[in-house]
User: Which sequence fits this backbone?
């Protein structure tokens, strides 16, 4: 009759800790670090831009490419038109600005101020019509439309799909 010890796989040399169940020290530390990173990310996520910084999370942007143009839409709620700058810098679309807000509650005797700068850079390449770029700002949404150059439009061709 088989006992419980006979069911456990054996490694070379008769050890009861086979390689399938043994973890290398490096993988133990890597797993610990991944778990710590996850815990910090989850903890700081609730504190918003003040703790995590503007660079990685704000403003959010959506870039869509069509045959004739590239469109970038930035969500910048609470930012005024005068606080945003749109540039074309060495083949990159640059959107930067500053958000300022101040809340004062005299009954509770506190004032809260928030200031932060942001900058997003989107590489465009060389085949855009620099003179035709348009920017529109409405209700906290900035939309930048960058037309492709005629050369880029002519080089684009649709390839037919064969049903097989």
Assistant:
């Amino acid at each position: 009759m088989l006992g419980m010890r006979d069911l456990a796989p054996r490694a070379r040399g008769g050890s009861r800790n086979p390689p399938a169940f043994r973890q290398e020290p490096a993988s133990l530390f890597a797993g610990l670090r991944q778990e710590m990173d996850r815990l910090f990310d989850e903890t700081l996520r609730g504190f918003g831009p003040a703790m995590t910084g503007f660079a990685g999370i704000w403003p959010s942007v959506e870039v869509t490419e069509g045959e004739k143009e590239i469109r970038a839409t930035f969500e910048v709620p609470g930012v005024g038109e005068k606080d945003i700058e749109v540039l074309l810098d060495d083949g990159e679309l640059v959107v930067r600005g500053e958000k300022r807000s101040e809340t004062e509650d005299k009954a509770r005797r506190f004032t809260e101020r928030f200031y932060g700068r942001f900058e997003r850079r989107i590489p465009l390449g060389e085949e855009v019509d620099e003179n035709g770029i348009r920017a529109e700002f409405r209700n906290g949404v900035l939309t930048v439309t960058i037309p492709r150059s005629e050369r880029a439009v002519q080089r684009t061709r649709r390839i037919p799909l064969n049903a097989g």
Notes: Residues 25-45 form the longest helix (21 residues).
